[in-house]
Amino acid sequence: MIAIGCDHGGYKLKEEIKKYLEEKEIEYKDYGCYDEERTDYPIYAKKVALAIQNGECDKGILVCRSGYGMTVVANKFKGIRAASIYDQESAKFAKADDDINVITLGGDYLTVNESICIIRNWLATEFKQGRYKERLKMLEEIEKENMK
User: Fold this and answer.
1) Alpha carbon of 86 to those of 4, 90, 115, 116: distances in Å?
2) Pairing status of strand 102-106 against strand 82-84
3) Domain segments of the chain: what residues?
């Protein structure tokens, strides 16, 4: 299950992403926002991160104008590994090497087609395991030390 969220700057792209997910019969839950009225991105990044933390969803897609603000907020939550993604290659490496469970997209910088290609590659890529899994264990230890 994918948690999806946006602020007003990412609303149009989020709606197009939902159409793609529906066409591919990929389950998702929409955590807002639901129109283009000005709102604050931390609200929706928090909702998506919490949905993953509590097991309601297993991964997330966040959209704002740049993707950066959403990334910062999502990474404040234990167990969330978020990255701003701008092309297909970075989507593959983010998943394969770092098991990124939340991607953030910049609605001002990506077309619908580019975004769909990113999502498709991210979803299709498997985490490499091995030494990369050891690094994630190190990350978990850092979270234990610093996220109370």
Assistant:
1) 17, 7, 8, 11
2) parallel
3) 2-146
Q: Which of 6, 33, 57, 64 is catalytic?
A: 64
Q: Cα Rg for the chain, rounded, in angstroms?
A: 14
Q: What CATH topology corresponds to 2-146?
A: Ribose 5-phosphate Isomerase B; Chain: A, (3.40.1400)
Is residue 57 part of the annotated active site? The answer reads no
Q: pLDDT tens string for the chain (148 positions)?
A: 999 999 999 999 999 999 999 999 999 999 999 999 999 999 999 999 999 999 999 999 999 999 999 999 999 999 999 999 999 999 999 999 999 999 999 999 999 999 999 999 999 999 998 888 888 888 889 888 888 6
Instruction: Tell me the whole-structure pTM to 2 decimals.
Output: 0.94
Token match 């966040």: residue?
62
Where does residue 117 rank: exposed (0-12), middle (13-18), buried (19+ CB within 10 A)? Answer: middle
Say which residues have a Cβ less than 8 Å from residue 55's Cβ, sequence separation at least 6.
none
DSSP 94-132: HHHHH---EEEEETTT--HHHHHHHHHHHHHPPP--HHH
